[in-house]
Every structure is written in structure tokens, then in C-alpha cells.
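EI: anyone free to look at a 211-residue chain?
SC: sure, send it
EI:
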Amino acid sequence: MKQLRWMVVIVFIETLAACGVQVPVTPEPSISTNSFETAQEYLIHGDSFSVTKDYAHAILDYDQAIRLNPEYAEAYNNRGYAYYWNGNAPHAIADYSRAIELRPNYAYAYNNRGAAYMASGHPDQAISDFDHALELQPDFPQAYINRGNAYLRLGHFGLAFADFRQGGANPVRTIALLCGIPAITILLGALMMNIVQQRLLAKKRRTIEMK
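SC: here you go
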């Protein structure tokens, strides 16, 4: 399902990190009671569980889909999604990596793995994955927003601002929400940055003219 192909983590990850709250882990049932015949049926049924946030049962259905079709890239991607929201980022990364191995041009899996790397505290690796996702699919707003969040985590304010805008999000409101900073403070900071940049450019032009 399309709902499971990509993740935007700008609010969820930063908010959880700031508050010291972990994504809850739901105990997983040990046996799947479903008896579908095809991998696609298990995938669709697993997606229905993921939509209702019953990730433990979703994982069991994706397990069955993969058992029936070990090269089912979408099943690995969607199971990674369920693992991620069930609080298991390492398992999510492993599944996204397998999905990418099976389908190297899988932009959604790159974006999702980037989100899992962010959750694991590896923004540099996350940015690399978001870069790959955007190379494969330049019109991917969620990947821009996620990359903007990674840039923000690394303190690259200007790059984050540009990515949020490219992804269709209001940069000022997004950064204010993520950082807990009043929007007026961000606006003033952006204005001061612009003034400094303009002065540096003017100084550079004067230096060139004097040579």
C-alpha cells in the first residue's frame, strides 16, 4: 500500500528524542492465524494491520509473504516500516537494505532506511540515503523534508531551510516546531543571515574590482 512506502519523521523522531520517550514496543504473537495462498495476499493483509498500527500482527503477515516469495522487495520494505514503528530500528534498517538489494531503484526504501538511520542517531548515513532517494525520484517531497530534518540535526540551517521549502513545507514553521523555537526568532535569524551574506558578497565584489 502506498501508505507504507514512505515515512516522514521530522516531527516524530525529534519530538520523541526531546521528550525522552521511546516508541512503544507491542508484544508480538508467536503464530500467524492467517491462511492465505499468495505472498501478495499476506502483504495486503499485513498492510491493513499497519494502517491500524497493529504492527506486531503486520510483521507476522509480512513474514509469511517473504516465506512464500523471498525476493518480494515490497514485503521487506513494508515489514521494515512495521519494525520501525514497533520500535526496532535495526531490524527496519536490515529489511530496507534487503529491499534495496532486491530493487536497487527503490526510492521509497532508501527514504525509509534514511528515516531509520535518523532514529538510530546516524544523520550522515540518513542524508546519503535521502540523496539516493532524490536521485531516483527528484519529485519526492517527503525525502526533501526528511533530509532537511537530518541537516537540521547536524546544524546546517541553510540546507535544512532549502530542503523544507523544496518539499513543500513552510521552513519557518517546520523548524520552529522541531526546535521548539518561536517562529519570530527563526525569521530574525534568517534575516540576519541574509544580511551577513549580502555584506560578504558586496565585500567580495569590491575586492575583485580593486584588483
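EI: The radius of gyration is 21 Å.
SC: 👍
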